[in-house]
Automatic annotation (TrEMBL):
Classification via Gene3D superfamilies: Winged helix-like DNA-binding domain superfamily/Winged helix DNA-binding domain
GO molecular function terms listed in the Swiss-Prot or TrEMBL record: DNA binding
Protein name: Winged helix-turn-helix DNA-binding
Keyword DNA-binding (UniProt): yes
Keywords: DNA-binding
Organism, scientific name: Natronoarchaeum philippinense
Keyword DNA-binding tagged: yes
Amino acid sequence: MTDREVLSECPPSAKLVYKVLEHDGELTQQELAEETMLSPRTVRHALSDLDEEGLIDQRVYLADARQKIYSLQNADAEAEVDAEAAAI
């Protein structure tokens, strides 16, 4: 199943969070709440859904170890594909 197929089964809030991560790159939960204008609780639930589906990565935010930073799981692979396409 592709990421797009998995994402189609997710709730709208998870789709919005995914698209913001796709556009903006790595963000904290607070930054996601600000960008999406969703409540922190809704963002937390959306991140949980995306994590369960294996669509995002999370790691400790080095600037503030109390927070996590989120990114798309395949962001590095997508960047490589984009770079290769631009080189052609």
